[in-house]
Amino acid sequence: MKQEGEIDxxxxxxxxxxxxxxxxxxxxxxxxxxxxxxxCELIFKCENFQKVGAxxxxxxxxxxxxxxxxxxxxxVATHSSGNHAAxxxxxxxxxxxxxxxxxxxxxxxxxxxAVKEYGGQIxxxxxxxxxxxxxxxxxVATYGAVFIPPYDHWDVIEGxxxxxxxxFESSISLDVLLAPVGGGGLLAGTxxxxxxxxxxxxxxxxxxxxxDDARRSFLAGKRIPLQQANSIADGLLTSLGEIxxxxxxxxxxxxLTVSDKEIIAAMRLIYERMKLVVEPSxxxxxxxxxxxxxxxxxxxxGIILSGGNVDLARLPF
Length: 317
What we know:
Strand content: 15-25%
Number of helices: 14
Radius of gyration: 18 Å
CATH architecture of the largest domain: 3-Layer(aba) Sandwich
Strand order of the largest sheet: 1-2-10-7-8-9
CATH class of the largest domain: Alpha Beta
Number of domains: 2
Order of helices and strands: HEHEHHEHEHEHEHEHEHHEHHHE
Structural class: alpha/beta
CATH topology of the largest domain: Rossmann fold
């Protein structure tokens, strides 16, 4: 495992080149209608158009491609109920190695189908963290596969950093850049990219009130694991990772929270005004801007739209 100092401007740029054949360079979009409502100039980085429908494709691809041949041969494994499962299965299939995914029985059928379509082998378990971790240990012991965590991993964080790197490569000057935070892979990567490529840009994390361990950890100066989570933003209902917390503590300016009602309103606004399919977790940063208009008034504000894997039969509006 590398140390933080090994993720620098060169390694992030190299990661973008490394994963170029595996991911999209996603577009930047604006909405004059939402700008008027928010009172600032918003630039949306559309990872809902990314491979597997989410930014997770970046970190998974980077981690898999960086594996030496001696570790690749037995494949990769993880436990995930969401986008990382599909992202890892796809990255593995791209280089011709197996992927073993431990998924809770409660995982959405759409997510299970995606993993299977990308060639991943699913091992179902009870919907508890203990069952997931035990299932993973069994799979690793049986197949000798390499465990690729969804966010608490240097190569995954390095891959996620390429998202913000693309924004700065576009020569856009941002006062603030917001990213949602669950496990913290995207926010940590975003913070590092800003630190190296646009140090004048303040990075802010956006989090649901019902899963606010990142904000509480940030304010306390120590990692406080999530005990209970209750939010419509299902992609953010996980504890902040240890590596991620260390990076976020050093390089993130603030973490702000919003209610589910505000998340749903922001999500609906994106659908209505931008005609984009986004999942609830994806709308959290916009909800933060709309809740704190005075803080962002008149500024150039970047928002990472993290993904668009939503069950259209269960839209909250």
